[in-house]
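Data card: per-record layout.
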Amino acid sequence: MAVREHTSLLRLATAGSVDDGKSTLVGRLLHDSKSVLADQLAAVERVSRDRGLGHVDLALLTDGLRAEREQGITIDVAYRYFATPRRSFILADCPGHVQYTRNTVTGSSTADALVLLVDVRKGTLEQTRRHLAVAALLRVPSVVIAINKVDLIGYDGGAYAAIAAELGAIATGLGITDVHTLPVSALVGDNVVTRSERMPWYDGPSLLELLEELPAASEPGVGFRFPVQLTLRPQEAARDPRYVEYRGYAGRVSAGSARVGQEVVVLPEGVRTRIAGIDFAGVELSEVTAGASVALRLADEVDVARGELISSVADAPTPVTELDAMVCWLADRPLLPGARVLVKHGTRTVQARVAEILARLDLDRMAPEEAERLELNDIGRIRVRLAAPVLAEDYTRTRKGGSFLLIDPQTQGTLAAGMIRGHAVFGNDFVADGWSI
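The structure for this 437-residue chain is written out next.
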C-alpha cells in the first residue's frame, strides 16, 4: 500500500447490529493506537475484574452511560478523538439496536467514512441492510465493512469471503462506489491496528492502515455558500463613532471559498453586492474557506436576516417551495400525508405540509414499494410543500446544501432527516435515481 505523508482529519462512524462488537472495536482502536490515558485503562481493567471477565472489556472505553454499561449495549452516539502520526480522527460510535437507528443517522451524517461491523457467524441481517441504506442515502464517501469475530470460526477464510461478496454486492446495488472489506477480531486485535499473522489468506491492510489512507470528503464543484446566523451590530455603536457604520453577518461557510471584493448574491431576494470585509475574532481576513466561522461585511446596504444565504453568483441555488426528498423517519408516531411540519434547511426554518408519501424502502428486497405511511426507522420518499422558499440543492452535489430536518411544530422534536433530490423521476431507478441518491 502506498504511503503518503499527511495529517488530515477524517470523520468516521461505526454501525452494525447489536453485539457485533462496535464498542469493542473502537476500544481496541484507542488502546492499540496508544490513545487511552493510564487512569482510564486502569478503571476499565478494574471493572472487568469486578465482573469476573477473563479479559479487559475495551467496550467500556466508549460505553459511558450507566445504562449502557449495565445492559452491555450502546444507546447514544459516543464521540472519541484520537490521532496517529499520519492522521487525526473524530470517531462516532453509533448504537446498533434498531430502536436507536436515529442515533446512527446522526453519527453518520457528517462522516467521511462508515465502518460497518458484521458478525461473521450471523452474516447479513436486516439492520445490516438498513445501515448500508442509510450510508447510501447520506452519501457517506467510503464504507468499510469489517467482518468481525473471525477468531470464533477458526479464521475460516471461506466463510469470510462468502459474506464479503454478499455485502459488497448489496453495497454496490445501493450505489455505494467506494467499498472495502476486511476480516477482524476486535476482541483479540487481529487486523485492527496491526496486520494479523493468523490469516495468511488475507493480504490487505489493517483497519487503521486503511483509515489512514481513505480520502476525506470534499465538494470541489460547489461554490461559496454562507448561511446567515446573525446580524451583528456591536453595542459600542451607540457611543463610539467608529462602530456606527458597522454591520456584519455572522455564520459559518458551508461550502466553497470567497475573498474580499468578490461579487455575491443574497438569497432568496436575489440582491447582488460585493464582500467588503471578512472579520474573524477581531482580525480582518482577505479570504475565507469552508468550515470557517466569520462575519461578512457587504459593500451595499442590504436587508439580510437569519436564514438567508450569501452565495457565489455563478452557481447560486434556486429558491423552491416544494421538495422531492428521501427521508429517514425518526419519530415514534407514523408519518401520514397531510402532516404539518417545520422544515429546517441550513439556518432557515419554514412551515410546511407533507403533500404525499411516494414510496418506502423494503429492506428485504432492497427495492421501493408503495406506502401510505412511514413508521419509525423507515426510509422513504416524500413530497413536501413549503409556506416560504428555501435554497434547496441536490444532495448528490452537496451534502450540506441538500440536507434538511423535519421538526414537530408543537414539541420542536426532530421527526426526520431528509435528503433533497434534484429531479422527480421514479420507477425502476432504485440505484441510479432514488434510494442511493
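Known properties of this structure: Helices lie at 22-32, 38-50, 66-71, 101-108, 126-137, 157-173, 207-213. The chain has three domains: 9-213, 225-312, 320-420.

See the next section for split statistics.
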